[in-house]
Design a protein that fits this description.
Helix content is about 60%, strand content about 15%. It has 12 helices and 8 strands. About 5% of the residues have low confidence.
């Protein structure tokens, strides 16, 4: 008999319709017809699983199942489902194959579980597992020490980043005069620096505007309005990211 591809669903071995048909010496259509005629005897989750849509596609891809992958539904038959199909066919071959499937396919997982339980009762196995666990715990403690040291180093080297984070949290926007004062520069010198580095330019109206290709969150252009004088205009303001960027740049001036 051809060796069956092992397929599992919910930690239980199952068979495709085509696998049952080939094993029992019949066709998938006969298996499907038997199921349709006796559907009231089959309980989903007990005798079979029916997969559709995305669940079916993921299951087929995971198990590399080509047979039935284009069908609307994919049926997976459990050990009890295979028994009902053997009863429906009622042939000597079906019963003979069913016994073989139980011994060599469905029950193999249970035997493997028993073997594992036996291994766990072996003192040598217990010692090996304990040794492996101890090694893993030692590695974990070493990793914790390294992470702790990295955290301390980061705290030492972090004042600039903390400064920037604080500004971001406060979400402050400042004009050129206040930004220059914060950076310890004169307003004219600060503006001249930004003009020279092509961060801003003066438009036809003489307003300071950011270059689009260099903005990247450094500036925000806001509409300013004075209700008392009915004056309105556009003003370029500097973001927390911009202030931190320019603070680092002017240090080298």
């Amino acid at each position: 008999m051809k060796e069956l591809q092992v397929i599992e669903k919910n930690n239980e071995r199952v068979l495709l319709t085509s696998q049952i048909a080939e094993s029992y010496g019949t066709t998938a259509k006969v298996i499907s017809n038997n199921f349709t005629r006796n559907q009231e005897r089959y309980v989903e989750g007990k005798h079979y699983y029916c997969l559709t849509d995305e669940e079916k596609r993921e299951f087929c891809n995971c198990h590399q199942i080509e047979d039935g992958s284009k069908a609307t539904k994919l049926y997976l038959w459990t050990k009890k489902g295979a028994l009902l199909h053997a009863k429906s066919l009622g042939t000597d071959k079906a019963w003979e194959v069913y016994d073989y499937l139980v011994d060599s396919y469905f029950e193999k997982v249970e035997k493997t579980t028993l073997d594992m339980k036996s291994a766990l009762l072996n003192p040598d196995t217990i010692i090996q597992l304990a040794t492996a666990l101890k090694e893993e715990q030692s590695k974990s403690r070493l990793l914790e020490v390294k992470v702790s040291k990295l955290t301390v180093d980061k705290q030492i080297m972090q004042p600039k980043a903390d400064y920037f984070d604080e500004l971001v949290d406060r979400n402050l926007l400042t004009n050129f005069r206040n930004t220059a004062r914060e950076l310890g520069l004169g307003q004219n010198k600060f503006i001249a620096f930004l003009l020279e580095k092509k961060y801003i330019y003066r438009d036809k109206a003489g307003r300071l505007m950011p270059y689009a290709n260099k903005n990247d969150g450094l500036f925000e252009v806001k509409e300013s309005k004075n209700d008392k004088t009915s004056w309105s205009g556009v003003q370029t303001l500097i973001t927390p990211k911009g202030r931190e960027t320019f603070r680092l740049l002017v240090q080298g001036m």
